Amino acid sequence: MDFRIKESRQIFGIRATALIIKNSKIFLTKDKKGRYYTIGGAIEVNEESSQAAIREVKEELDIDCLVKDLAFIVENKFTQGELSFHNIEFHYIVEPIGETPNEMIECGQKRACEWIEVDKIVNLDIVPAFLKEELPIWNGQMKHIINMKEE
Predict the structure, then answer these.
(1) Above 70 in pLDDT, residue 149?
(2) pLDDT at residue 2 greater than cutoff 60
(3) Do 53 and 96 form a contact (C-beta atoms < 8 A)?
(4) How would you classify the pairing of strands 36-37 and 126-127?
(5) pLDDT by residue (tens digit) across 22-45?
(6) Which among 118, 123, 103, 119 is positioned nearest to 31, based on CA atoms?
(7) CA of residue 52 relative to chain centroid, distance
(8) What is the mean pLDDT of the chain?
(9) pLDDT at 15 over 90
(10) Contact yes or no for 65/98 (Cβ under 8 A)
């Protein structure tokens, strides 16, 4: 069971993402509109956030990974349509074990995947958007980011 609570049109959740990085490149998925995404999803009840990142990589890419560092904790508030979201997010730097696939599968849908140089993500339409600025300058220390603006 995912750790998400829905009250009327407000959803609160706790998420973990895997920032898959190797040779100064990040592995991202891409939707049909050209928007890029990290691998990740909701943490399950009684699951450690780092284990959720590992599980999401296995579920979506069918590969194993090693968690290296907790890079960012993000308090994120945003809207999509008529729904308002408030997420607490744990973003882990992970290293893939084995070869990464050319596509991922989530909820029965396939998405293309590609490696992109970390210093070039500033030019991408990427979710979460804070990565554009923060990942290229990440100094190896965990950073707490608060994005509580309604967008």
Answers:
(1) no
(2) yes
(3) no
(4) parallel
(5) 999 999 999 999 999 999 999 999
(6) 103
(7) 11
(8) 93
(9) yes
(10) no
Which tokens hold the place of 83?
């729904």
Q: What is the DSSP string of the chain?
A: -B-EEEETTEEEEEEEEEEEEETTEEEEEE-TTS-EE-EEEEPBTT--HHHHHHHHHHHHHS-EEEEEEEEEEEEEEEEETTEEEEEEEEEEEEEEESPPPSEEEETTEEEEEEEEEGGGGGGS-EESTTHHHHTTT--SS-EEEEE----
Cis omega (within 30 of 0) on the bond before 96? no
pLDDT confidence of residue 150: 52
Structure tokens at 54: 């590992």
Q: In this structure, what token pair is assigned to residue 111?
A: 């998405």
Residue 106: predicted pLDDT = 78
The one-letter code for the residue type at 118 is V
